[in-house]
Amino acid sequence: MQEWKNMIGFSDGKELQITYDRESGRKADGPKHGKIDKSNTPHVGGNQWAGGTGGSNTAGLGGFGGPYRLDAGHHVYQVPQAEKDAVPEEVRQAAREIAQKAFKDRLREINMSEYDAETYNNFLDHVRGQIQSLRVILDSLQAKGKERQWLKNQAYGDLDDAKLIEGITGEKSIYKRRGEKDPELGTPQEKPKRMRLVVDLSGSMYRFNGYDGRLEREMEAALMMMEALDGYDEKIKYDILGHSGEDHKVQLVKSDKAPANNKDRLVVLKTMHAHSQFCLSGDNTLEATRHAINDLGEEEADEHFVIILSDANFDRYNISPKKFGEILRSNDKVNAYTIFIGSLDDQAAQLIKHLPSGHAFICLDTKDLPQILQQIFTSTMLSSS
């Protein structure tokens, strides 16, 4: 048995699972929210209950033909992909219209609701120590941008008046010329560094949050960045974009309008959660990465960083790791990295093998994120580019 486990890739202590695929015989013909079971009893199949799993037409998980995802906290039974693919286009469109209305209603509710200190502190408590660690790292960042200045002691260029005597005595390096020079250690930054965090808001983040907490972990990571970078505007400017099956550049935080207080930051977190719940299925990781890198590279900055958070769900959408790696290295001005914060089995570990060394990390616990960011910043400080 152990040899068989090793052969198929199961690690020690991991539960084995057998999956049965069978046609449900149901039809997707009328998307709706569904009835609310006040006792929150698990419902599997059928087309009546909101929050059920493996059913049809209602909001839930693992089913097909419903308007959006709704996790009621139960074990998820998944219908075969073939049944999801067979949903008629008119049903998909009707479901999409319901989802769009629900998403707009949720955004309105988020922006109008009073500040929920308990919810915010629950997230903050998980990353409070990491915020302090990241601030220490930020304090240690050095200027990197090359500045044009007079390079002295050159063999050619304009004659340096301060070197006239040396010239008479036959010294050759008596010229100066304009050029770029690496800043000395401790040199103040003339321009802020520029960071862009690109977060995964795809439906799989919501769908598998109950499996490994990936969406909550991503929200904690975003909160850690927002809290740690607060007050560092002159040293580093940041923004946060999201991507999902329906958009590759969901604006969550603008570089010139960072969240000013806890309520603003909580709105960002709730918006991330809502988008992942109500968005279309699909994946725009490649387009989001390409856009983030090219767009940021156009800005003036001491250094440019793009950090892509992903759940490593590449197989389902036939995303090429090689192509992703090429995009990460496509712009010499931008230091681009990906951090996998979720993974079904060993998906993330397998992906990293096919990505550029030092540009991909796995973070299945938020407490590891400051260390990863320190590796990222250190790698650019040590590089000669």
UniProtKB/TrEMBL annotation:
SMART domains: VWA (SM00327). InterPro entries: VWA8 (IPR039891), VWF_A (IPR002035), vWFA_dom_sf (IPR036465). Residues 48-58 have a biased composition (Gly residues). Residues 194-376 form the VWFA domain. Gene3D superfamilies: von Willebrand factor, type A domain (3.40.50.410). One of its GO terms (cellular component) is cytoplasm. Residues 24-40 have a biased composition (Basic and acidic residues). Residues 24-58 are annotated as: Disordered. PANTHER family: VON WILLEBRAND FACTOR A DOMAIN-CONTAINING PROTEIN 8. This is von Willebrand factor A domain-containing protein 8.
